[in-house]
Every structure is written in structure tokens, then in C-alpha cells.
């Protein structure tokens, strides 16, 4: 792909090919850094850091301070006291998705067993 011929409003034409490549690498690094933060490592501030990397202006969204503070308090408490369990919303969603998958497989197994039993009974 020849980046010098791409029409991209985010990369000014005044940038040289090398500068455009460097800008793309800088953006990719910021995206990867953000992507790699998971669970306890991720904070809403990480989102804002990512958005600030973009060349367009960024205005942070309005937030409910009570919700943000409650989440931050849980996170800080878990860091200060290892006995305090803190599970980020994202990690909890991932855990529940895994549990749903296990339950779906279990239901499928039960349905297969039920079908086999019904087949055996019909042969009698």
C-alpha cells in the first residue's frame, strides 16, 4: 500500500511519507497500549488519553461523578488490601460470558442425552 497516495484527512498532505508513517506508528502504539489494558489496569482516563492522541479536538463526555468515584474507590481499596476483591466491569462481563458458554454446552449435552433416551424408549 502506498501511503503517499492515500487520501486521509487525518494525515496532512504537508507531511512527508516518512512523517506520515511515523504518525501512523504513533497512533498504532497508542491504540495497542489502550487495547492491552484489561480489567483492573483500565481506567476511564485511559480512554481519554487515547482520544487525545487523535489530531481532532477532544471534549471529554459528561460523567456522573458519584458512579466514577464509587468505581475508583473499589479499585483503590482492592490495591491497598489484597483481601478486598475488585472485579472490573469488563472482567466481570468476560467471566459471565464464559459461564454462559459452559451452561450452553451443558444444555446441549443434556439435550443429546435426552434425545438418545427418547430414541431408546421408542425402540422398546
Overview of the structural elements:
There is one protein chain. This protein is an all-alpha fold and 124 residues long. The protein is built from four helices and no strands. It has helices at 17-36, 44-53, 65-80, 89-123. The longest helix is centred in the last third of the chain and has 35 residues, at 89-123. 0% of the residues are buried. The model is unreliable at 1-6 (pLDDT under 50).
Residues in helix, %: 55-70%
- For the termini, the CA-CA separation is 68 Å
The H-and-E topology, N to C, reads as: HHHH
Could you tell me the radius of gyration in angstroms?
Answer: 25 Å
Separate helix tally: 4
- Beta strand %: under 5%
Structural class, please?
mainly alpha
Q: Which runs of at least 5 residues are low in confidence (pLDDT < 50)?
A: 1-6
Task: Say how many strands there are.
Answer: 0
Give the mean pLDDT: 79
Shape: elongated
Largest sheet: none
Ordered list of secondary-structure elements with their pairings:
Layout: H1 17-36, H2 44-53, H3 65-80, H4 89-123
Question: Keywords, please?
Answer:
mainly alpha, 4 helices
Give a short synopsis of this structure:
This protein has 124 residues and is mostly helical. Helix content is 65%, strand content 0%. The protein is built from 4 helices and no strands.
